[in-house]
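Researcher: We're teaching a course module on how sequence relates to structure. For the next exercise, students receive a sequence and then see the predicted structure as tokens, so they can try to spot secondary structure elements on their own. Here is the exercise chain.
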Amino acid sequence: MKFTYKLNNMGWVDVYLQIGNTEMYFYPSYLSEPLVDLVRSIELLLPECSSEDEVRNVVQFDWDSEPAIHNWVIERISEEKVRIKIVLYKDGIKTIPGELVLLEECELKQMIYEVVNSMEVLLKNHGIIGYRKQWCAQDFPISSYLQLKYYLLNNCGFPIKINNPNEWIERIETSINKELELMKKSLV
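Model: And here is the predicted structure for the students to work with:
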């Protein structure tokens, strides 16, 4: 699997996806949150990154490419593999049958690696504030980036501390120092 995600213009993204022999190009806009939807969906497939009641075997989201809509369905079919199905609605009308443009399987960790690597390139090229300015005032999904990167490097969830568990006022904490150290680490 190969995946790149590049901010192109104000509120537009160039995305390249290759799985097996299938190659696709997408050009989603700020009318959807393509990066946020993708990374949060991946998190939901991972018990290490989501609470027990949020974990899913199948996730779904739409990328708005004006006027087209690409509907993504990612299904975890084993511990190691996912199936990705993408249906294109050319005119953005989901009540009319769409066209199946991708149905492929890939390694889950490879998918996460490609997505996190693309996020690192975004951070290097734009920074956190620059990303927000380029992406029409929407924030970079930094917590999802950190959770997925930590999972790749450690095969477990990011360490959290819960004070007063199972009480009315819980307080969840992570270490900002560990988060900053993680941002500085390279995937390779």
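Model: If you want an answer key for the exercise: The chain has a mean pLDDT of 94. DSSP finds four helices and nine strands in the chain.
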